[in-house]
Design goal:
This protein has 479 residues and is of the alpha/beta class. It is 40% helix and 9% strand. The protein is built from 19 helices and eleven strands. β10, α19 and β11 form a beta-alpha-beta unit. α4 packs across α8. The chain starts with 28 loop residues before the first helix and ends with a strand.
Length: 479
């Protein structure tokens, strides 16, 4: 991620020598992904399969332009991908690379035109997305040669594009320098919308959150396990570069780690065995809010949750109750077995999947008569999300979110559509006469998706047979 304003000087001379190319890029390494610890090698590029998957992701989320503004033509068919695409680490790297390329799409296209790579080279349209993501990475590692491992399987399309970019290396670097000078920017990073830059700065400083699966391990056992691995318990992890953790002050089963420990943590058994689960704190706040409103035999209805980790957390928090967790809107029955297997691994035993969409479920449905709390997680703009790639992978959200976040905002038309959907779902939730509370959780910073839609629903609520109507104190927002 880009989090530094320290930049190296660029030369505006078109005859920049190859020896100077190492100083050129959108930003320095500290700005693009955080300052590397001592001994960590410089960026050396990605495996071929990551470039291909990133290109296919970019192809689906790239910004479409009007015909008169089109600089580069893109194909319509995805590139064939390898089996590595299913690996979680490959998926994460691919999404991060595609999102980075998306944020700089205009700049990267301009560089390709200004360097005369387009249209002088004969390039099939279906390779354009691959060129964009590989160019982003090429400049990010200061136009240095990619280091390949001996056992890596090469992909012909990637090799073709790499050879093309290398042959234009000097011209691409000069075009990049001219672009920065034209905008009178400290770095090309500073041409990005301010909201995007603020989001990246926030993401670079936020800690990691993980909740404890108390069905498999106790908090004390987790603390001891971490301490044996050299971690130290502290009150706060902010601005700490050591191996430390802290217990969250709002959720007793949530631990906080410094962000730089992500790679170290995901390889330990606690995470591999589903004893610790990475997840944004907003989701933990939501399920804990629901838990505080339940009695021993009350059921919960969860609406629109894309993340099965959120469902699992809700299940585990109620594992000592006789509660059932109903999850609606899972329309693909083919995925049922995957969900059942995941819940079995995590120790969840009280989850029941409903395949109907929420608004099509009658409030008098016989299955839901013991539901006392509805957890509503509506589709939203997601502009409150600091790490969109992690959010999409963990919450199974639509990749279109990346398109909005790369531009720093959501269009008024889309915001209106989302707010209307949220209102309809909230109104429908309030029609469940036996439900005593609705927990409403978004990841949006827009009032239209938060207090505005909540107040509108409260104003027009149908009180029906409820002894006590909903009020603002019954509806909670978790941002």
């Amino acid at each position: 991620m880009l989090n530094s304003t320290d930049e190296l000087e660029f030369s505006n001379k078109s005859n920049t020598s190859i020896s100077q190319l190492s100083s050129l890029g959108l930003s320095d390494d500290r700005a693009s992904c955080g300052k590397s610890p001592p001994g960590v090698p410089e960026k050396s590029g990605y495996p071929d399969s990551v470039y291909v998957m990133a290109a296919n992701i970019f192809q689906g989320i790239r910004i479409e332009k009007s015909p008169e503004k089109v600089l580069i033509k893109y194909g319509h068919e995805p590139l064939p991908s390898s089996s590595d695409s299913e690996d979680e680490s490959f998926r994460r790297l691919s999404y991060e690379l595609a999102f980075s390329a998306l944020k700089y799409q205009d700049i990267l296209e301009t560089i390709l035109i200004d360097s005369y790579l387009f249209p002088s080279a004969t390039i099939p349209d279906h390779l354009s997305s691959l060129i964009i993501v590989m160019l982003y990475d090429f400049q990010d590692r200061k136009f240095q040669t990619r280091v390949l491992s001996d056992d890596e399987e090469s992909i012909s399309e990637v090799q073709e594009v790499e050879n093309l970019l290398n042959s234009f290396k000097t011209k691409l670097a000069a075009a990049l320098a001219r672009c920065r000078i034209k905008h009178d920017a400290l770095s090309i990073y500073h041409i990005l919308p301010e909201t995007v830059r603020k989001q990246e700065l926030r993401a670079s400083t936020l800690p990691l959150y993980a909740w404890i699966n108390t069905c498999k391990i106790s908090p004390e056992e987790v603390y001891n396990n971490l301490k044996k691995r050299g971690y130290k318990e502290v009150k706060s992890v902010l601005h700490v570069n050591d191996k430390v953790f802290a217990v969250d002050q709002h959720c007793y089963d949530v631990l906080i780690f410094p962000s730089h420990l992500k790679n170290d943590l995901k390889n330990i058994d606690l995470f591999k065995d589903y004893k610790l689960i990475f997840q944004d704190k907003s989701r933990s706040l939501a399920v804990h809010s629901v838990k505080s409103l339940l009695n021993m035999d009350d059921d919960v209805l969860m609406v629109n949750t894309g993340s099965w980790h959120t469902v699992a957390h809700m299940s585990i928090l109620t594992s000592n109750n006789t509660s059932k967790i109903f999850v609606c809107g899972v329309q693909s029955q083919a995925k049922d077995l995957d969900f059942v297997n995941l819940f079995a691994k995590m120790g969840c035993k009280n989850v029941e999947i409903l395949h109907e969409t929420f608004v099509n479920i009658e409030s008098k449905d016989h299955r839901l008569q013991k539901v006392k709390v509805i957890l509503l997680l509506p589709r939203c703009s997601g502009l409150g999300v600091s790490n969109p790639v992690e959010f999409i992978l963990n919450e199974h959200e639509d990749t279109d979110l990346l398109k909005d976040l790369s531009q720093g905002g959501t269009s008024e038309d889309k915001l209106h559509i989302l707010a209307q959907q949220q209102y309809e779902q909230l109104r429908h939730a309030m029609r469940f006469a036996k439900a005593q509370a609705v927990v409403y959780c978004t990841c949006s910073v827009y009032p239209e998706e938060n207090e505005t839609v909540v107040n509108k629903a409260l104003e027009f609520q149908d009180r029906g047979n409820k002894v006590q109507p909903y009020s603002g104190t019954h509806l909670r927002q978790c941002l």
